[in-house]
Amino acid sequence: MPANIDRWPISKKPYFLYNAAFVFAVVLIASLFGILTRPMGLLAAVWPANAVLMAFMIRRQELARAECWLAALLAYLTADLMTGGEVYVTLWLTGANLTGVAVGYHLFKHLDAEDRQLRRPMSVVSMFCICGIAAATTGVTGSAASHILFGQSLLTGFAYWFTSDLVNSIIILPVILTAPSAGTLWSTLHNYEFRIRDWMPAATLALATTGGFLVGGPGAFVYPMPALIWCALAYNLFTTSVVTMAFCLASLIATATGSISSLPASNDTLVTVSIRLGMAFLALAPLAVAIVDSARNDLLQRLQHIVQHDALTGTLSRRAFLEMSEAKLAKGHSTRSVFFALMIDLDHFKAINDQYGHATGDFVLRNSTIAMSSALRSDDLLGASVEKNLRPSAM
Questions:
Q1: Which parts pass through the membrane (predicted)?
Q2: Which of 173, 201, 309, 362 could form a disulfide with 231 if both were Cys (CB 3.0 to 4.6 A apart)?
């Protein structure tokens, strides 16, 4: 690295090295976590690396560059070789992982930004279809490797690879795709005030999950469904995604380690495949509810804004201004607060319309409003009333 790097133009600074280092670190950590969940010796019970890599590249497309793909390759190899893997086997398995990630990324890239961020009700369907195609690609490549390297049948190998990649993508992608920026997240956590009611849905889910594990049997995974739906209705999409991922990861690890009583042996192919598929479909329900609820809330906010604000100036409508003013006065009466009201009349406004046209009159109104708004505090109210003779009054 040149010693005078700080003197480089901003556009020429090697930020690509930072991106590559970030990808390497993230994939390495995710791969090591997955390797630690290998009770069966061949495939991990949870393999988050593919989903994490794909999600970050979807969200930050500047990461989908050659140096970042190379960094991901090195991270996969490093994680496997650190834990005793053979070079030839590791290369083939890594190729299967990267093939599925590449297919999923390129399919997601063609979606609208709102669908990539899971803001539309049909976004969850698009995500599921793309994850299914990417998992199938990984399954085809991985099953061939498993057949040649380990003597596993093609069908069995495909089932393991496909279901593992599918369920991990379904539960991990939403968390990264819907996560707020680091600054927003820190501000939210810093200003958060603890309230018991906020934690009740998550606590109920934890209790239902624990009870399901203790009772055991195939139905153990369905018992927490009402609590998951409650979380989807109580929390925003990102929080719901985090809660859903935590539940699914706990369930997958508990299944692989035999922690759930009365459950058939986890080394049975049909049982493992069935549980993973069931977990993937189960995760879709709270995600779909949260997405629909979020879209509904956004629509209601837009409608409320339209009702409460003037379309031309963006100020409060007469009705909204009076209602909010009355609420402020009622609240301030108990605290003996002092309020001031100012009414401004734009003189000779009709002459502007007559001489220069209504478009110019609209321009004057908007800029007058901007000038007034810039002089107000954050909790001040500004409303506009346009009279029939086109003489506006700002209050």
A1: 15-36, 89-108, 128-150, 201-221, 227-257, 269-292
A2: 201
Q: How many CB atoms lie within 10 A of CB 248?
A: 23
Residue whose token pair is 């009466």: 333
User: Would you say domain 309-394 falls under CATH 3.30.70.270?
Assistant: yes
**Are 124 and 288 within 8 A, CB to CB?**
yes
pLDDT in tens, 98-132: 999 999 999 999 999 999 999 888 999 999 999 99
Burial-class residue 27 by CB neighbours within 10 Å (0-12, 13-18, 19+): buried
3-class secondary structure, 169: helix
H or E segment and range at residue 344: strand 344-345
Residue 392 β-bridge partners: 386
Q: For residue 175, how many other CB atoms are within 10 A of its CB? A: 21
CATH 3.30.70.270 in the chain is located at: 309-394
Query: Using one digit for the tens of pLDDT, what is the confidence trace for 355-381?
Result: 888 888 888 888 888 888 888 887 788
Calpha distance 239→290 (Å, rounded): 10
